[in-house]
Amino acid sequence: MAGKHGKPDDDDGGDDGNVVDTDGSDVDEPTTYAPAVGTVDVSPAVRSPVPPAASPESGAFPDDLAVDDDEPTESTEPTGPTRARRRTSGLLIAGRVVMGLVSAAALAAMSLVWLRVDALDDSKNTTDAISAAQEDSGPAAAEDDGANDILIVGNDSRTDMQGRPLSEKLLRELRTEATETLNTDTLILLRIPRDGSRGSAISIPRDTSVMVPNLGREEKINGAFGITKAGVMEKMVGEGEKDRAKINRDSDDAGRASLIQAVQVLTGVRIDHYTEVSLYGFYLLTEVIDGVDVCLNHSTSDPDSGASFAKGPQTVRGGDAVAFVRQRKNLPRGDLDRIVRQQTFLSSAMQKVLSGGLLTDNAKLNALEDAVSKTVVMDDGLHFLELVNQAQALASGNVQFVTIPVEAVGARNDRGQSIIVVDLPKVHRFVTDLLTPQPPQPAGMVAPEEFGRTAPAAAKAAQPTVPCVD
């Protein structure tokens, strides 16, 4: 996203087309029928009521059976089985018409959704960071392992898409303040097996220490984007570049490529797609869907993130939603509990989007398009329809939430920074094994918490209420 900067968080009527008979005659049904809309016409070639039997010699056909009002005739009103057949035929045809209209309406609605999803796709800001990252990727990352891997990034930028600082008023709404650095504190790798089996949403703790290839040293993974961006900006300015938009754009893409490579080193898989939303974007998106339902086990507060929440179920939106997913202080396990919050929040949000009629609400879709155009970046190969499909999977429980295995939390690097230590081979095996169906565990057994194989209850479709978290 162009010009993202962020806070260092080391601590952190009319004619309806119907014809009405008004002559007062007692007519059981029309003499002809049009094929039902949206259905295949399989009725006989002549679609008139069954007439009274006529002698073969008369040569009479249905169209020749008009009654001469000047001559008395015997009644032609059918009785018994013939009349019953006519009424049954009328009901069947009426049913066809209704079903045809319903089908046509559904098709029109789906077409509208497709058009609006395409409009969302046109609204997105694009990046070529994926191709840039793959130009210098390692052997493991270059291998197609049978999954479609989408990196979902949330950054804490305090600027807009053009790199202009957000207003003081907006920063207060976001429960934050201006800062020159940028961190990517939300990192989720969405692994979707190409064989259609259950996918995984893998959370990566922000403080995970990993080798960042372009920097040639280990860094906290949430800093790979910002550190690289700052370096590229400085270099471009030093070389005499005056176009601020270009500096912003190029440095952002360099930061994204650096982050992608770091995630590839950490997980051992190639990233196929990339999507990023800023702090302001997160704020706008929660406003569009009228908030997200959450629940807390205990009352909690944190001045740094602006969090102040009571115990129990509640709906958060805007700045409160931002604070809910950013808080890590005063949580029992710090960043690991924040990850659980992010996972349950995302699942609840997806359920809200898909059950709240967002995709058929024109006003909300307009607001969503506006938010996307201002705050969302995706690689050009990723279509919004793919994200809608994955949102459905998340909401239905067809994607499990997990967290990479960690060895130590709160360790210190040589610069005194608090970091999370991981064992790379163990992380690689964990990520690879997610593509292999796991045998059911014995009753009462729970997967090790540090490996995060047990999805939060919010991801389970059978869960009737929002689960409470710390």
TrEMBL record:
Pfam families: LytR_cpsA_psr. The chain crosses the membrane at residues 93-115. Gene3D superfamilies: LCP protein (3.40.630.190). This is LCP family protein required for cell wall assembly. Keywords: Membrane, Transmembrane, Transmembrane helix. Belongs to the LytR/CpsA/Psr (LCP) family. NCBIfam families: lytR_cpsA_psr. Residues 1-87 are annotated as: Disordered. Residues 65-74 have a biased composition (Acidic residues). Residues 183-354 form the Cell envelope-related transcriptional attenuator domain. It comes from the Bacteria.
